[in-house]
Amino acid sequence: MSNPPVIAAETAQLMERILYEVKRVVVGQDRFLERVMVALLAQGHLLVEGVPGLAKTLTVRTLAGTLRGSYKRIQFTPDLVPADLVGTRIYNQKTGEFGTTLGPVFANLLLADEINRAPAKVQSALLEVMQERQVTIAGETHKVPAPFIVMATQNPIETEGTYPLPEAQVDRFMMKVLVDYPSDEEEFVIVERVIGPPLAATPVASTTQLAELQQQCRQVYVDPSLIQYAVKLVGATRRPDKHGLGDLAKYLSYGASPRASIALVEAARALAFMRGRGYVLPEDLGDLAADCLRHRMVLSYEALAEGLTADALIAKVMAKLPLPDKPLQHQST
């Protein structure tokens, strides 16, 4: 038996400073910001869905500024080609040779704005970068800088001229976060800040420090019972009848893949780390279940006809499979 790792005071202070700097610029959106930090610590990609004007771009740009990391933004459009994303070979007339020009994906934080507006070729080019963290141009492989995180946004209300993301690509995102409108009080503060003097985030950490945080995050203890629960939860979306949820089978064409189990445990570990714990609690899994599962479930036509959402089905699964009792918090095996 050994005690689970304890989060060092300087580590907690560093994360607090990062969040403080971002919140100096971004008003509200606490849940969204928490998910962004979870994705950063867990080295996962994030898909963000929300109507325009909810500070999605501002949050990612501000976070990049606090980390002294390179930040690139790509506005996805129907006429985009893969070379605009990853780079291409260009002929140099002076030297008479071809040189490689690397694209905007070579950054620590990549914001893919309105990703569902890009055609399939561009989406498949981004797929290799997200999965392999490398780009192949004219047979040569180029590694993207580390850490490398893709934050992609999509607009849920305007579907004209969009290309729905294929399941293979959606599955590469650790989480899909839904961003909602701010409250009246938050919107009042937003307007005050916009009409007042401009604010900019101060760099408080380096990408090297972020890499260290990511390594420390991987030391957070996860009890086997929690891993078992994550696997059972994901399994219930594939074969609901095996878990006493036979009435949901008609609403699900396909359930979540094994990546969902991995993402849920990894994200819960990052959330526990953010909350200053060296061990994961069941509540960490429960808080992130919908974010890790909603984009990996393919609903049937019957579910769509009845107006059911993936979140509603996840809630029914979690009601049937309640969170396990808290494992021993002071021991690890």
UniProtKB/TrEMBL annotation:
ChlI/MoxR AAA lid domain ranges (all copies): 250-316
Gene3D superfamilies, per database record: Magnesium chelatase subunit I, C-Terminal domain (1.10.8.80), P-loop containing nucleotide triphosphate hydrolases (3.40.50.300)
InterPro entries: ATPase_AAA-3, CbbQ/NirQ/NorQ/GpvN, ChlI/MoxR_AAA_lid, P-loop_NTPase
Ribosomal protein listed as a keyword: no
Domain of life the protein comes from: Bacteria
UniProt keyword terms in alphabetical order: ATP-binding, Nucleotide-binding
GO molecular function, one term: ATP binding
One Pfam family, short name: AAA_3
Occurrences of domain ATPase AAA-3 (ranges): 45-175
SUPFAM superfamilies: P-loop containing nucleoside triphosphate hydrolases
ATP-binding as UniProt keyword: yes
Family affiliation: Belongs to the MoxR family.
PANTHER family linked: MAGNESIUM-CHELATASE SUBUNIT CHLD, MOXR FAMILY PROTEIN
Protein name: MoxR-like ATPase
The organism of origin for this protein: Pseudaquabacterium pictum
